[in-house]
Q: What sequence folds into this?
């Protein structure tokens, strides 16, 4: 087997043109498949030396550009991800195991396109877009369009996933809320996006504090400054154990709740219950306009159980998945 | 492909197929070199070859391993290596001297002369057990006990290594990914004579039963303590969640990591306090004038103590910054020295991340720190 280590994008595109070339990100999936003969790549093209695939940066309109080559651990340690994308951070914290998070990348998780990919439901509820690059240029696609089935994406030959663009959920919700978050972010942003974590003492302390909070809570509800309005961002994964488990069912939920406790917008996405991440507009509609509470959630859960068509496999039966897919909504009553 | 990296402080230069698995390359190197090279390593390269500071540079012979492509896929390659490993284990006497242990695997034989073809290119080898994974007892070469293969699929953590200080799984890395990196295995953290606090704690707490998972556990623990020197038990459990142990039930392992964390924090505090009092003795003028002691707010308590703690943190941060700079080992040692202590201890401190140790420690044990700093500060004042 040949291994190529391109140092920039032109080298990458040349390498990908080799016969039987396959892009290698973190290797946590591809190398396992290769070894068991489930993949027949002749040439592995390493993505880990490419600066174009690295970094987290603020884009226009408050969106964030997440380099596809960032490992899960790197994203999980990034102040912008922790502060702005708590939903993704919650999923990353549950992904694989510490060494897997040190190796696996965001781009790898997306391009593997497993129905159980932990990053997918959160990014789907956030309306993320993927940035694809090839020798002929760059293009952007909604993540929902990018993944077409288990292990299948719209990645063209010679093309790689360079970055994911996600709009943080709180953007534009409420000026007061934004201002509050920005104030909390000051310490981090003073360090500058390009600065190494730890450039300022304040940033270090903030990061530590964020870490502590995040690992103990999977969901977050961010209260608006002086208002009762809030955004609920919740991720929960049910697996056979809490580490190193492929999701049996997972749910990412993003709710905008008004001052009166009424759900103004609900975005829900389930993992592991369909060939791709599963959305349920009927359940979202069942929650919207209702006061957030057990009554409304139970009704939405019933809608979910009616609509969802999971399969049974080695990890769980279809019936179990259907039941849990609905029940995961009930947790939202506790946030 | 020509590879160069450091393995437990020793420079390694190899010529291997880039598509080989990192674990195979590392294990082969730890065993004393390419079995096909006919290059018998000296006695000094045996059990002690993984100790920090062993500076031998090894160049594995060319031959089949030097090919950029190793895809001709001889299906017997993996099996023959497993056989060689079994032979190795079986010919190692219980009280074996390193020299005799070498004899079997290093004799060049036709079957074992093409290790470059084993590994990823080999289809159908994902079942753990009798495939060279070592679970069949073939992996007990005493020179390569620190990188074990359990599952070969990233689920057990037995092959964990530190790559530039970060825990990774060598079974899911390619040889090419070792290039330019600083690799540390469990054996590189300490030796039987001078164990790392984590290693000593594992022994003292009975955290080792069959021992197969232990090197990976120790590496995972080292990775944790570098990032978080004051972990709670839940933090420890999470950090070790990628490492499977089928013997101990984990309680003793968590106990051991907990104890090691406390010991490392204690050692660092002692060293820093010593250096602090040294510094204060040298520059009494700085003291008491609210000398710039870093960005931390001055404590509201006794000014001397607040000053002392702040200075401790600053000193440590300076040291750790330098220590964490790569790739120069010299810088690391120098930086760690700045953080206080002998080189040996300082190296360990660098690995454990002085910066965060002291920060967390200063917070977690503020009182104890103040108590220790107190008398010394007084001494400094007396000197003034």
A:
């Amino acid at each position: 087997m040949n291994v190529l280590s391109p140092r920039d994008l032109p080298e990458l595109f040349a390498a990908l043109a080799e016969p039987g070339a396959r892009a290698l990100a973190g290797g946590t999936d591809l190398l396992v498949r290769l070894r068991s003969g489930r993949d027949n790549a002749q040439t592995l093209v390493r993505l880990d030396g490419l600066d174009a695939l690295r970094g987290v940066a603020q884009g226009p309109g408050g969106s964030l550009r997440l380099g596809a080559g960032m490992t899960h651990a790197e994203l999980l340690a990034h102040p912008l991800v922790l502060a702005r994308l708590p939903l993704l951070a919650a999923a990353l914290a549950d992904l694989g195991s510490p060494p897997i998070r040190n190796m696996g990348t965001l781009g790898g998780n997306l391009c593997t396109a497993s129905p159980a990919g932990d990053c997918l439901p959160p990014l789907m509820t956030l309306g993320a877009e993927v940035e694809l690059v090839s020798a002929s240029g760059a293009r952007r696609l909604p993540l929902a369009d990018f993944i077409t089935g288990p292990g299948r994406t719209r990645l063209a030959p010679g093309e790689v996933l360079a970055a994911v663009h996600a709009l943080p959920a709180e953007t534009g919700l409420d000026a007061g809320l934004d201002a509050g978050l920005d104030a909390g972010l000051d310490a981090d942003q003073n360090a500058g996006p390009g600065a190494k974590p730890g450039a300022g003492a304040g940033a270090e302390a903030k990061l530590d504090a964020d870490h502590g909070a995040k690992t103990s809570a999977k969901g977050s509800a961010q209260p608006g400054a002086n208002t009762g309005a809030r955004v609920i961002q919740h991720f929960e994964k049910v697996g056979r154990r809490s580490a190193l488990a492929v999701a049996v069912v997972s749910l990412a939920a993003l709710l905008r709740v008004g001052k009166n406790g009424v759900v103004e917008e609900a975005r829900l996405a389930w993992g592991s219950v369909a060939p791709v991440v599963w959305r349920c507009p009927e359940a979202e509609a069942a929650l919207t306009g209702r006061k957030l509470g057990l009554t409304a959630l139970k009704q939405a859960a019933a809608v979910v159980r009616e609509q969802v068509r999971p399969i049974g496999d080695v990890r769980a039966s279809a019936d179990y998945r259907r039941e849990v897919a609905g029940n995961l909504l009930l947790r939202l009553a506790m946030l | 492909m020509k590879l160069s990296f450091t393995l437990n402080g020793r420079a390694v230069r190899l010529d291997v197929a880039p598509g080989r698995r990192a674990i195979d390359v590392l294990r082969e190197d730890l065993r004393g070199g390419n079995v096909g090279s006919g290059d018998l390593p000296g006695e000094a390269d045996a059990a002690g070859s993984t100790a920090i500071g062993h500076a031998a540079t090894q160049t594995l012979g060319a031959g089949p391993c030097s090919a950029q492509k190793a895809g001709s896929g001889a299906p017997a390659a993996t099996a023959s290596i497993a056989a060689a490993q079994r032979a190795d284990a079986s010919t190692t006497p219980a009280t074996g001297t390193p020299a005799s242990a070498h004899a079997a695997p290093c004799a060049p034989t036709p079957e074992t002369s093409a290790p470059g073809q084993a590994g990823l290119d080999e289809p159908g080898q994902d079942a753990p057990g009798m495939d060279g994974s070592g679970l069949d007892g073939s992996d007990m070469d005493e020179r390569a006990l620190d990188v074990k293969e359990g599952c070969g699929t990233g689920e057990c953590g037995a092959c964990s290594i530190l790559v530039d200080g970060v825990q990774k799984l060598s079974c899911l890395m390619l040889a090419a990914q070792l290039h330019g990196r600083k690799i540390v295995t469990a054996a590189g953290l300490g030796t039987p004579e001078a164990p790392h606090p984590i290693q000593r704690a594992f022994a003292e707490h009975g955290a080792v039963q069959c021992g197969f998972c232990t090197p990976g556990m120790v590496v995972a623990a080292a990775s944790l303590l570098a990032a978080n020197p004051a972990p709670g038990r839940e933090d420890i459990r999470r950090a070790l969640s990628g490492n499977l142990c089928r013997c101990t039930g984990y309680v003793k392992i968590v106990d051991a990591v907990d104890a090691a964390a406390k010991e490392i924090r204690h050692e660092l505090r002692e060293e820093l306090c010593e250096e602090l009092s040294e510094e204060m003795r040298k520059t009494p003028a700085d003291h008491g004038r609210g000398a710039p002691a870093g960005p931390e707010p001055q404590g509201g308590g006794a000014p001397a103590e607040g000053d002392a703690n702040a200075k401790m943190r600053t000193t440590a941060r300076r040291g750790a910054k330098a220590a964490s700079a790569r790739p120069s080992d010299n810088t690391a040692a120098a930086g760690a020295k700045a953080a206080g202590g002998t080189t040996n201890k300082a190296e360990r401190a660098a690995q454990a991340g002085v910066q965060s140790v002291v920060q967390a420690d200063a917070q977690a044990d503020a009182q104890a720190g103040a108590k220790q700093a107190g008398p010394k500060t007084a001494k400094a004042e007396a000197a003034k």
